[in-house]
Each structure stands twice: as C-alpha cells, then as structure tokens.
Amino acid sequence: MTQTPAFIAGERVTGADSYENVDPADGHVIGEVLRGTAEHIDAAVAAARRAQPEWAATKPEHRADVAQAFAALVLENVEELARLDSEDTGKPISQARTDGQVTARYFTFYGRAIDSYYGLQLPVDPAFHVYTRREPLGVCGSVIAWNYPLQLFGRAVAPTVVTGNAVVLKPADETPRSAVRLAELAVEAGFPPGIINVVPGIGAEAGAALAAHPGIDHMGFVGSNAVGKLIAGSAADNVVPTTLELGGKSPHVVFPDADLDRVALFATKGILQNAGQTCSAGSRLLVHSSVEDELLERLRASFESTTLGPGSSDPDLGPLISRKQQDRVTGMVERASGRVVTGGTRPTGSSLGDGAYFSPTLIAGVEQDAEIFQEEVFGPVLVSRTFEDEDEAVALANGTDYALMAAVWSRDSSRVHRLAARIRAGQVYANAYGAGGGVEYPFGGFGKSGYGREKGYESLDAYTATKTVLVSL
After folding, report:
1. Is the residue at 113 inside a domain?
2. Which of 18, 66, 229, 260 could form a Cys-Cys staple with 32, CB 3.0–4.6 A?
3. b/e string for 450-468 if b means 16 or more Cβ within 10 A?
4. Which candidate, 445, 321, 36, places its Cα nearest to that of 207?
C-alpha cells in the first residue's frame, strides 16, 4: 500500500516505520502512514527556520497574491481533497466538499486582510515620534484535530503564513492525507519550500516532539482538554505562547416565544453535523418547561428521519471516527440519566454493522451534574432539561467548565441581548446556530474551552508581536 509521507522543505519524506489508516465506514485499511519521529520534526523545524526570514522580508502584497493563488488551487482540487477527508473521517462527501471550500476561503480572507494590516502611530508626546510594527513570530507549530482536517489546516496555516511566519503542522493520527496534499499544492501555488511543512504521526510521539521543540515560536492546538494541558505545558517550558481550542458543551437556550420549527432545524444540524464530532456542537438543549413537549417531538421526528451511511453515499450522518470513539459514545449514553426519546444505540445490519456508526440520540430530563450534561460526548447525542425563568436558564447555560458557544432562542430582542451578556461563551448566536461560525468571526472560548482566538482579524494578532519604536525629535 502507498504510504502517506511527511512533506518537509518541499519534498515528500517516507520512512520505514508506519501505521495503518482505517476507513471508519467499514473498517478496511486505506493505506499506511509515516510514523513521524522527533528527527522528522527536527528536520521540519530546521527547514522552516531556513525559509522564514526571506519569506518575512517579502511585501504583504506578495504574500497576499500567493495566498489567493493557493485558494484558487484548493478549489480546483476540492473533489480530490474532499474524497481524502471523507474516507479518512467517514463524513458525508458533501460536508467534506464544503470543508474544502472553507479552506480556500481562509486563504482568500487572510490574503486580503494582510494588505491592510498595519501598526499604529501613537501621538502622545510631541517630543517623540512613536509608532508600532506588527512582526512575525518566526516558526509556528500546530497540532490539529481529526474532525475537520481541511478546515483546521486553513484556520491554522493561513493567518500564520500571510503574516510572514513559517509553519510545521502535525495532522491528527487518523486523518493525515489532506494536510500533506495541501502542503504540496501550496508549493505549486508559490509558497517557498519550507514555509509549510507537514509531519504525520502519533500524537504522543510527533505531536509531543513538536510541542516541546525549542525552535518553535508559537504553538497552536485543537483537541481534547487533557492533551491541550500537555501541549501548553511543553510550550510553557520554552516560554512559547499558545492558542488552545479544547472543546465545548454548548447550549441552546429556548424560550416560549421561540420559533420551534427553526429551533428544531438548527439544533438538528448543530448536533448531527460531522456525526456530532464538533467542538462547537450544540450538545445541550435548555428549554422552557412550557414548550418542552412540543420541541422534543419536533426533534424526535427530525432525528428519526436522518439517513446513515458511508461518506461516499452522502448521507445525513456518517460514522464516528473509530470503533474506539463508538465505544466511548456508547458508554456515556448507557450511563446517562434521563429518558431516551430516540436513538441511544449502535445501528445494526449488513450495511452499517461493520462501521463505527451511532444513531442520532435525544435524551430528556438529564440532571445538571450528570456526566453526559457536563462532558463532551463527541457524538450525535443531544441532552435536554427544562428551566422556568431567565436566571435558571443562565445558571444552567453557565453550569459546565466549558464556554465555547451558545444560542439564545427568543423573539424578545431585549432578552436576547441580556442573555448574550450574561452567558459565558466565546460566540453567542441569537435565533440561529452555526457550529464555529464563519471564517470572519473570532472564535475561541473561556475556561476548559481554551484560550486565545482564531478566525477573523484577531487571528493575525496571535501570529505577530507588537514592536514599539520611539524616535526622539
């Protein structure tokens, strides 16, 4: 079988050690993946360190042009990229195709933004001419998750490279192929060899080596809270800034005057997209007791009309990433308190039994201190409980250690703004919900959801440092 290589200094790098890449739709082996080592990370960081100064010296206009050319090339190859991600993750091909299009959008957006990203003049003291410069940090490391391989590549890499940095990226163990292909296309688009490097491998090996590498000037991570702590600890040992996106337990807060049909539509999409394997999935439903029965019935019908199957058949819901994740979801559902309204099982049958599938699941009456109310399931599981007034709704919404996203459903605009201010979350939607929002909107959380912001204009600040220049007049 072909081996998914590393891509270092513009070259494909293979090796003797590898591991199997498994399609979660049916368990068959797609191919082998290079098991990246600390030596591969060393080589990638060295390549980035060599290439970065010359790249940083180019005009923003040039970096913008290259980013735009890369975006166009991603769109030209979106079917190939979508197929790779659909096979690696199991997600429906249409969702993978959208991921590819959003990846291109990252490079388009940041390619345009860098043209107007300047420092400031500070006319504080007439005896001095004072101004600031935004300068690249140098070489940035990034470890991304397996749920959105294409999008997370764009989210991490685009703002990094347009600001003049080089990057070494470690894709998730399970989903390495699209990142390597994107790095190849980046060189074709005009990024110098060494500016974008990809090293696949096992997280505890290649990922740990990257996070602890003394040649890294910034570290980014998307994944679990437990691993995020390790990444941040390693970076802290080298006094390296980090950006962490560690997950969420995001609530829909539904008041009696909400449009329940719209709630059901967006709540279904918010938890079933990518089989619920989304950090910003709307996984908790907080509904006023007076409309609970009506909303649960709408959601039950919506969940039970969902189609399941392999990503290549483009169903509503594909498999989970692995059997391991299927076992984890099953265990959390079996331990859950409350009433299972629908789902709660692994589907059986010749077409689904071999894959890592889990039925769309709705559980009502879950206690606030229950594991399934407090912790990420990372599966197509929505848990529900009721409230009686605004104060109780806010207490429930803020009643977990996570604080990534939330949605408020009400026609009362004053109530919407009151709750948007009181709910602790990095993004708050009103009468809509989009897992993660758009490329243009700052994204990140509080508490165990991590720190720092990605996306939007703020991301440019994360990958640069302010230098203040004071000239005596």
Report:
1. yes
2. 18
3. bbbbbbbbebbbbbbeeee
4. 36
- Report the predicted TM-score, pTM, of the whole model to 2 decimal places: 0.96
Q: Are residues 279 and 214 in the same domain?
A: no
Asked if residue 25 and residue 129 are part of one domain, the reply reads yes
Q: Taken in order 189, 193, 194, 200, is the CA torsion positive or negative? A: positive
Distance CA 449, CA 404 (A): 6
From first to last of the 473 residues of the chain, give the pLDDT tens digit.
689 999 999 999 999 999 999 999 999 999 999 999 999 999 999 999 999 999 999 999 999 999 999 999 999 999 999 999 999 999 999 999 999 999 999 999 999 999 999 999 999 999 999 999 999 999 999 999 999 999 999 999 999 999 999 999 999 999 999 999 999 999 999 999 999 999 999 999 999 999 999 999 999 999 999 999 999 999 999 999 999 999 999 999 999 999 999 999 999 999 999 999 999 999 999 999 999 999 999 999 999 999 999 999 999 999 999 999 999 999 999 999 899 999 999 998 767 988 999 999 999 999 999 999 999 999 999 999 999 999 999 999 999 999 999 999 999 999 999 999 999 999 999 999 987 678 999 999 999 999 999 999 999 999 999 999 999 99
- Tell me, yes or no, whether 289 and 231 share the same domain: no
The residues that are catalytic are: 245
Q: Is the same domain home to 163 and 211?
A: yes
